């Protein structure tokens, strides 16, 4: 790709970007949120049209004007935002547009399901290919996306943050697959904010900043800190700034909580001033637990206390009134009203407070939104930009702002830093520090073990709907967490966290 | 265990109207109902929701045939489209009485038989209105017409009758002819617009009283009450009142209640095996202030 | 940007239409005709207000026409029974609001698709109006009531004034208040709204009740204008109201739309019908012209939007 | 599961309705009446096939009724001009398909909302039918054509047979083929479909053309049944067709729906009307009953679904 330029109303997304990809390499694309990574790749995949520049494939200039023409050229893409049809099954999604068919048009269902099952199994996803995508978890949807991209014999594979919703096990298997493709001579573009992945699979790395290429390096020839400096244009010292006081009163207590088929016998408590990490593999029941805590789904057994009082929450509205806030993992489906502006999304849960006599105070709204745009460095042309036009990471920041703006003191964060660049993560961690300092408690669900280890005071690990282990942050390490998440060595690790019992 | 509707032993007569969303047919129903009560007839009245819907009318007839009524009285929504339905009734051996709208002449070729036609002619009514202008209004008029739904047979016939009557008359000029879809509010709007473009209009022929009554209010809103002569059609109660008050000049009366009465009476005679005339004309009259006052 | 562009496009469509008519007919651009047009638009425009709220919330309301009829006959029968004007008006409004509320409850608590619940209400309210009146219109009212249609304040007819007030208040409601914001949020992403603590059921019910209410306001004007309330009034009004909203840029997928757009949409339809009458276009051709103009007006808009992006 | 549950719920609604009618009327459950009902349902059911495709793709087609009229008069005029039957049928089908295709092109290339483009077509096709016939019906056809409505094969009337074939083929098309998959995909998430390499424009155009085509098939039956093609035929048929699809579980938001559901929906409406006639329910009350039954039938369904989850 030569001198690619692309502008959106109010934003210059790419400015004369050069980018090349060799067969059999993994070219990692790094950059802050809104740097233009996804845009560049969408131009290559035919989703967007470039304003200027040229695309060469094996030396030949090519015209990529639709996603279909990119596919014909052997370019396969995993987009950052899921592009799945919610009502259709996993198998149908995987082969959408390329259904195996017989007699010109009749779909061969057996082959469809068989091949889909095979692909998913290769990725280690234990999901039934005939389930509708809308009832899959975010991680499972991500696996479907990966399988979909792998189902074509591609020369070029674009992967835009494929691991942001995955946890350890799946990531390993995915990397295996990537290496396999590499050996077959497939060129892979890989975008991620998890820098540790770079060393593991990257061949070369290109850093983008504000739509410009800063530099291209061979992996191994450049230090991580240097890359971070190039991305952010500043130094970043402490990746996990932990500042914590002694925990205060109990905010949330859960005893023997169970929801049929999803989780059982869950007990823990959350106190003022602490961050409780919740780790586990995909499908271990973390999100299901969070949904129950927030009053979205009902529980069948056990009890729930908030601020020392037993409560039964029947709706998110009641949960919010009780002082809870819930950052959902699926920002597009559950977090954002995409066609509303940044300002309107940020203020949505706080409108009661921001309006008098039912009339919304726009000034206050704007102030609120501006505060977060500045403190979280959300890249947007204005407060009035519909969030659908923001980059993935910036959308995530909007969801986060929306809950930080509320008056909650019990926060449930489900994958809060999903898709967020490393610089902004630190800022978010600092915000979490401030929240705990102000007396809030945070239940942080995360699949990124470094984040769990770096920020939590105590750590719970879920396995198949049960709390499999409890640690304090001092006793935990990656290996212990992973073993517990896999359901091994439970009894040994279990005792440690009881140091501060829930009672 | 199931009620047998015919168990009363009373003769069952079905009356299928074009619609009941129109006072004209409500009057017809009333006339029929009164006769049925008087004569001890079990009367079933059915109508399509929409007057235009010839196929729904056919469905209703098919369904009533299933209940083996003793006689079927129908106001055809379409003069040709009714023929297949009549054929079905013939096949089931159910006598058919046609009301209000004549069946197309091609019925004979098709072999469709009906026992009688009770009613008057919409075309004739239109002619009456036209002749009234020629004869009673001194033959001088700038006429606006409010049409029904374009392509709807009833309105077409009235319109053709009217146009034929005034054709060739030197003093009568049609300056505007616009559809108001049989509706009162559209009668208002359309005539208000016509008045803007053609303030010289001095006579209005509306293919139904509902549209005329809407236009009446538009005229009042323009402050021109009394300046425009309005001739409606159907002679609804409200129109008669307007005629009595002098805000409307005339309307064509088809006496639908009488049609209803005659339908039930003759259906009963037919069921009893008596002969009935093949055509029973019902008066069609121009109603003006005199007629209203003498009632 | 896209919002503004959208509204601008339809406005251009309206202006083009007006210019065309001004060229074709000497009667079009006269003050009295313009007042006529706006007055004739009032009923549809007011119904389209509630419809816009409903569509913005990703719903649909097919029952508006029948609610017009039902609340009209309730109002008229109160008037004829000698009830004082304010009471009769209130009864009419209450009837409309109640029908709308039932729609809302069926949708939220009964979990019916809006199309089904309002389709059912469309039949039921119409049937109720017919049964209540035995199919006969109720006509002839006192001057104080008829003033609502025939009166003028300054040179503005009262219906136009009512329409103005309804639009102003509803515009504020939709664009400035929490209620309005929740309407957009529900239409844009109902689940996200729910998870943000919006009481979706309550708000949706209110939105449909509001639509019933605006239909009842339209019924007042219609009844006063025709000096008659008919059980068959309002036939197919739903189509005109939806058309006004959609021409005005409201998306049937929800989450998008403005009342200024709807007003422009309603005016386009009103001006078009007025123009056809002024020009004396033959009745068969009218349908072709109406269809083509609607398509063209929105095409202008779509083209402008494509340009912009 | 939810799919099945949904269909099952509506089926239960239909069964309940039939049982009620069987108890109330001795005429309902007779072979001749059942054949009668199915035959009466054919026209709406066939239009609803194309409508289901359109709604599954998250669109709407308001023009079906007008297309019925337009293709009907084209067909009829060909027949009257002495064209051989197959040619005349082809002309009618082509007319319908062409109108539908224009809808599709306006939506895809003109980027009009489906509501607007088909609303426009609704007027234009109706107007064209009126102009073409000068408002008069075209009547009186040869026996070979009329056989399509009056004929019987075995004890099955030809219209029922045609309906069966249309449903069978369309069901295969929707559930087994790529075309069908893409229809769901476009309705579920148009952007995702586009990014997966589906040629959304082409497929959408085809979907609307298909809807025009099924309307034309319905026009053939209708014309043969009445032995007449009217330019005002098919008035408001769009509402019945949409209702059949939605009662049958097709979501107006797209991505969901089956033809078995639509068939059940159409049958519910047909049986209901038939039953009301058999029972001799007064016309005013009929509207109330129809509305209530539609609401109840779908409520049953919604309740069952809630149970299931
Ligand atoms: N469709 C669009 N319309 C308007 N602006 C857009 C659009 N898509 C992207 N942008 C803007 O272009 C810029 C680059 O976005 P892009 O999605 O490429 O960022 P990114 O590098 O992928 O960021 P992230 O790490 O958050 O995914 C951002 O400022 C974004 O707001
Ligand atoms: N109330 C519910 N209704 C429907 N599906 C649900 C519900 N609660 C949970 N699920 C689904 O159940 C599956 C398991 O969810 P679970 O909470 O166990 O995953 P998880 O541990 O959160 O995994 P992840 O690592 O993706 O967060 C997911 O597909 C989730 O979407
Ligand atoms: Mg991105
Ligand atoms: Mg989760």
Summarize the topology.
The complex is a heterotetramer, with one copy of chain A (503 residues), one copy of chain B (295 residues) and two copies of chain C (309 residues).
Chain A: E1 2-8, E2 11-17, E3 26-31, H1 37-44, E4 52-54, E5 56-57, E6 60-61, H2 67-72, E7 75-78, H3 90-94, E8 101-102, E9 106-107, H4 109-122, H5 138-150, E10 156-160, H6 168-183, E11 187-191, H7 196-201, E12 204-209, E13 212-218, H8 224-232, E14 250-259, E15 263-271, E16 275-280, H9 286-293, E17 301-306, E18 309-310, H10 316-321, E19 324-327, H11 331-335, H12 342-347, H13 351-354, E20 355-356, E21 359-360, H14 362-375, H15 392-404, E22 410-414, H16 422-437, E23 441-445, H17 449-455, E24 458-463, E25 466-472, H18 478-485, H19 490-494
Chain B: E1 12-19, H1 23-39, E2 42-48, H2 54-66, E3 71-74, H3 83-92, E4 96-99, H4 106-110, E5 116-119, H5 122-136, E6 141-147, H6 153-166, E7 172-179, H7 184-197, E8 203-206, H8 209-221, E9 229-233, H9 237-245, E10 250-253, H10 256-271, E11 279-281, E12 285-287, H11 289-294
Parallel strand pairs in B: 1-2, 1-3, 3-4, 4-5, 5-11, 6-7, 6-8, 8-9, 9-10
Antiparallel strand pairs in B: 10-12
Chain C: H1 2-24, H2 31-56, H3 64-80, H4 85-108, H5 114-133, E1 138-139, H6 143-150, E2 152-153, E3 156-157, H7 158-176, H8 178-188, H9 190-195, H10 200-226, E4 228-229, H11 237-247, H12 259-279, H13 283-308
Antiparallel strand pairs in C: 1-4, 2-3
Helix pairs in contact in C: 1-12, 1-13, 2-7, 2-8, 2-10, 2-11, 2-12, 3-4, 3-5, 3-10, 4-5, 4-10, 6-10, 7-8, 8-10, 11-12, 12-13
The complex binds adenosine-5'-triphosphate (2 copies) and magnesium ion (MG) (2 copies).
One magnesium ion (MG) is lined by residues 37-38, 80, 160, 391-392 of chain A.
Describe this structure in words.
The complex is a heterotetramer, with one copy of chain A (503 residues), one copy of chain B (295 residues) and two copies of chain C (309 residues). Chain A is of the alpha/beta class and 503 residues long. Chain A is 34% helix and 24% strand. In chain A, the strands form seven sheets. In chain A, strands 7-10-11-3-12-13 form a six-stranded mixed β-sheet, with helices on both faces. In chain A, strands 19-22-23-16-24-25 form a six-stranded mixed β-sheet, sandwiched between helices. A four-stranded antiparallel β-sheet of chain A has the order 15-14-17-18, with helices on one face. With 295 residues, chain B is an alpha/beta fold. Chain B is 45% helix and 21% strand. A six-stranded parallel β-sheet of chain B has the order 2-1-3-4-5-11, sandwiched between helices. With 309 residues, chain C is mostly helical. Chain C has helices spanning 2-24, 31-56, 64-80, 85-108, 114-133, 143-150, 158-176, 178-188, 190-195, 200-226, 237-247, 259-279, 283-308, and strands at residues 138-139, 152-153, 156-157, 228-229. In chain C, a hairpin with a 2-residue loop joins strand 2 (152-153) and strand 3 (156-157). In chain C, helix 2 (31-56) packs antiparallel against helix 10 (200-226), helix 4 runs antiparallel to helix 10 and helix 11 (237-247) crosses helix 12. At the A-C interface, helix 10, helix 11 and strand 21 of A face helix 8 and helix 9 of C. The complex binds adenosine-5'-triphosphate (2 copies) and magnesium ion (2 copies). One adenosine-5'-triphosphate is lined by residues 8, 11, 13, 31, 33-39, 80, 379, 389-394, 419, 421 of chain A.
């Amino acid at each position: 790709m030569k001198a690619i330029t692309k502008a959106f109303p109010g934003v210059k997304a790419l400015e004369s970007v050069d980018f090349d990809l060799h067969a059999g390499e993994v070219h990692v694309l790094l950059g802050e949120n809104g740097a233009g990574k996804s845009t560049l790749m969408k131009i290559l995949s035919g989703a967007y049209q470039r304003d200027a520049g040229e695309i060469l494939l094996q030396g030949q200039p090519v015209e990529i004007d639709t996603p279909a023409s990119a596919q014909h050229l052997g370019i396969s893409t995993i987009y950052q935002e899921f592009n799945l049809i919610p009502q259709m099954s996993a198998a149908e999604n995987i082969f959408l547009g390329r259904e195996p068919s017989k007699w010109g048009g009749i779909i061969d269902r057996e082959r469809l399901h068989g091949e889909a099952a095979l692909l998913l199994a290769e990725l280690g996803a234990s999901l039934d290919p005939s389930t509708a995508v809308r009832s899959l978890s975010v991680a499972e949807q991500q696996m479907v996306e990966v399988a979909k991209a792998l189902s074509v014999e591609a020369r070029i594979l674009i992967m835009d943050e494929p691991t942001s919703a995955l946890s350890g096990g799946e990531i390993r298997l995915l990397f295996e697959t990537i290496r396999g493709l590499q050996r077959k001579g497939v060129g892979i573009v890989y975008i991620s904010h998890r820098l540790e992945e770079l060393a593991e699979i990257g061949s070369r790395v290109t850093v983008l900043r504000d739509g410009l290429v800063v530099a291209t390096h061979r992996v191994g020839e450049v230090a991580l800190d240097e890359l971070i400096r190039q991305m952010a244009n500043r130094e970043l010292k402490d990746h996990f700034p932990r500042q914590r006081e002694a925990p205060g009163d109990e905010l949330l207590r859960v005893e023997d909580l169970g929801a049929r088929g999803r989780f059982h016998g869950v007990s823990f408590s959350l106190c003022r001033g602490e961050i409780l990490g919740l780790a586990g593999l995909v499908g271990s029941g973390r999100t299901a637990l969070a949904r129950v805590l927030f009053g979205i789904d009902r529980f069948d057994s056990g009890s729930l206390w908030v601020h020392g009082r037993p409560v039964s929450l029947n709706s998110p509205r009641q949960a919010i009134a009780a002082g809870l806030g819930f950052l959902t993992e699926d920002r597009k489906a559950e977090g954002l009203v995409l066609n509303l502006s940044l300002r309107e999304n940020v203020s949505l849960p706080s409108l009661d407070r921001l309006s008098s006599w039912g009339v919304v105070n726009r000034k206050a709204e704007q102030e609120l939104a501006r505060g977060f745009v500045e403190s979280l460095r959300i890249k947007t042309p204005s407060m009035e930009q519909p969030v659908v036009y923001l980059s993935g990471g910036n959308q995530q920041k909007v969801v986060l702002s929306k809950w930080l703006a509320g008056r909650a003191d019990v926060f449930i964060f489900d994958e809060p830093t999903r898709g967020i660049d490393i610089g902004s993560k630190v800022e978010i961690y600092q915000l979490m520090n401030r929240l705990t300092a102000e007396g809030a408690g945070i239940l942080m669900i995360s699949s990124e073990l470094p984040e769990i280890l770096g920020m939590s005071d105590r750590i719970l690990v879920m396995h198949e709907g049960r709390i499999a282990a409890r640690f304090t942050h001092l006793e935990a390490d990656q290996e212990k967490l992973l073993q517990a998440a896999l359901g091994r060595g439970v009894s040994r690790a279990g005792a440690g966290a009881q140091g501060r019992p829930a009672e | 265990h199931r009620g047998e509707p015919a168990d009363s032993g009373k003769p069952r007569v079905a009356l299928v109207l074009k619609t009941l969303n129109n006072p004209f047919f409500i009057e017809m129903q009333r006339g029929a109902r009164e006769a049925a009560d008087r004569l001890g007839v079990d009367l079933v009245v059915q109508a399509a929701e929409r007057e235009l819907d010839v196929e729904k009318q056919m469905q209703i007839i098919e369904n009533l045939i299933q209940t083996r009524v003793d006689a079927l009285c129908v106001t055809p929504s379409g003069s040709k489209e009714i023929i297949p339905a009549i054929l079905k009734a013939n096949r089931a051996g159910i006598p058919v009485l046609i009301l209000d709208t004549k069946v197309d002449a091609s019925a004979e070729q098709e072999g469709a038989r009906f026992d009688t036609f009770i009613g008057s002619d919409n075309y004739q009514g239109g002619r009456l209105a036209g002749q009234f202008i020629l004869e009673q209004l001194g033959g001088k008029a700038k006429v606006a017409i409010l049409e029904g739904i374009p392509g709807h047979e009833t309105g077409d016939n009235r319109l053709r009758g009217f146009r034929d009557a005034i054709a060739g008359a030197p003093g009568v000029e049609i300056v505007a002819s616009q559809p108001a879809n049989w509706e009162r509010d559209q009668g208002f709007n359309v005539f208000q617009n016509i008045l803007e473009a053609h303030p010289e209009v001095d006579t209005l022929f509306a293919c139904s009283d509902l549209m005329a009554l809407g236009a009446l209010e538009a005229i009042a809103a323009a402050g021109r009450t009394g300046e425009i002569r309005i001739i409606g059609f159907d002679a609804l109660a409200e129109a008669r009142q307007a005629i009595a008050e002098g805000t409307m000049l005339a309307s064509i009366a088809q006496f639908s209640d009488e049609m209803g009465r005659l339908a039930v009476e003759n259906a009963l005679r037919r069921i009893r095996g008596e002969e009935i005339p093949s055509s029973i004309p019902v008066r069609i009259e121009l109603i003006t202030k005199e007629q209203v006052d003498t009632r | 940007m896209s919002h503004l562009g959208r509204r601008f496009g339809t406005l251009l469509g309206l202006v083009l239409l007006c210019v065309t008519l001004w060229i074709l007919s000497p009667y079009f651009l006269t003050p009295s005709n313009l007042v006529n047009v706006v007055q004739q638009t009032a009923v549809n425009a007011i119904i389209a207000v509630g419809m816009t709220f409903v569509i913005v919330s990703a719903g649909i309301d097919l029952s508006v026409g029948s609610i017009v009829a039902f609340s009209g006959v309730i109002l008229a029968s109160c008037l004829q029974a000698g009830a004082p004007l304010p009471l009769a008006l209130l009864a009419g409004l209450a009837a409309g609001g109640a029908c709308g509320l039932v729609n809302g409850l069926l949708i939220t608590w009964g979990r019916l698709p809006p199309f089904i619940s309002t389709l059912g209400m469309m039949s039921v309210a119409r049937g109720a109006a017919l049964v209540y009146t035995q199919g006969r219109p109720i006509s002839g009212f006192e001057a104080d009531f008829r003033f609502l249609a025939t009166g003028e304040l300054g040179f503005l007819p009262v219906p136009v004034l009512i329409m103005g007030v309804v639009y102003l208040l509803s515009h504020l409601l939709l664009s400035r208040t929490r209620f309005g914001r929740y309407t957009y949020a529900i239409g844009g992403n109902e689940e996200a709204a729910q998870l943000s603590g919006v009481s979706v059921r309550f708000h949706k019910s209110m939105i449909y009740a509001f639509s019933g209410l605006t239909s009842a306001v339209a019924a007042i004007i219609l009844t006063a204008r025709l000096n008659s309330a008919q059980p068959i009034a309002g036939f197919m009004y739903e189509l005109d109201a939806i058309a006004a909203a959609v021409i005005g840029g409201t998306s049937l997928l929800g989450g998008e739309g403005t009342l200024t757009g709807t007003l422009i949409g309603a005016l386009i339809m009103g001006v078009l019908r007025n123009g056809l009458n002024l020009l004396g276009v033959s009745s068969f051709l009218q349908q072709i012209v109406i269809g083509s103009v609607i398509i063209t007006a929105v095409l202008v808009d779509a083209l402008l939007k494509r340009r912009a992006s």
